[in-house]
Amino acid sequence: MGPPHGTRIRASIFGSVPAEAYVRVMELHTRRHSKRIGVGMSLRWQTWTVEHRLFSTMPITMQHERDNIYRIDISGLLEKDEFDRCQSLLVDEMRRIGPVKLLFVLSRFEGWERSDAWGDLTFYVVHGDTIERIAVVGDDKWRGEALMFAAADLRRAPVEFFSSADALTEAHAWLAA
């Protein structure tokens, strides 16, 4: 069973396509692994081939890893409205469990869409103290911009960037400390 009829899915290669066409294309790939994940009240699809990820329905996804650690994967060009949706989900989780630690994983990241809306600091002002630590894993070319985006020099919570071969392991260890 696929997404509701008329749903459009954002696929990184094809832009926005009708969900029915997206599902049909994915059915043609014999070496695939698909899973449905819930994002708020809507369903999104993520599909990977054995060798590499073909599509991403959203450039940003969030999942609860363990305890109070949440992983946020970002790929492609991050749009402000998608980031806002992720922040809304995170606010709900912070209300439920209290302070959180965040792990941002930048994979095939292309940067941020151009928008004046990125200047809105409401989330930082209202919820900044509910974040205990922020770890960012990604290509070193994004270090400066990612730390600036995370307001590393402004917030009380420590923010670290990891880009070594074992970056994910190091980030997990640092978050657990």
Topology:
Layout: E1 8-11, E2 15-18, H1 19-28, E3 32-39, E4 42-49, E5 60-66, E6 69-78, H2 80-97, E7 100-112, H3 122-127, E8 131-137, H4 143-149, E9 159-162, H5 167-176
Parallel strand pairs: 6-7, 7-8, 8-9
Antiparallel strand pairs: 1-2, 3-4, 5-6
Please provide a written account of the structure.
This protein has 177 residues and is of the alpha/beta class. The protein has two domains: 8-49, no CATH class; 60-176, SpoIIaa-like domains (Rossmann fold). Helices cover 29% and strands 37% of the residues. The chain is built from five helices and nine strands; from the N terminus they run ββαββββαβαβαβα. It has helices at residues 19-28, 80-97, 122-127, 143-149, 167-176; strands at residues 8-11, 15-18, 32-39, 42-49, 60-66, 69-78, 100-112, 131-137, 159-162. It has a five-stranded mixed sheet with strand order 5-6-7-8-9, sandwiched between helices. Strands 1-2 form a two-stranded antiparallel ribbon. It has a two-stranded antiparallel ribbon with strand order 3-4. Strand 8 (131-137), helix 4 and strand 9 form a beta-alpha-beta unit. The longest helix is centred in the middle third of the chain and has 18 residues, at 80-97. Mean pLDDT is 76; it is low at 1-57.
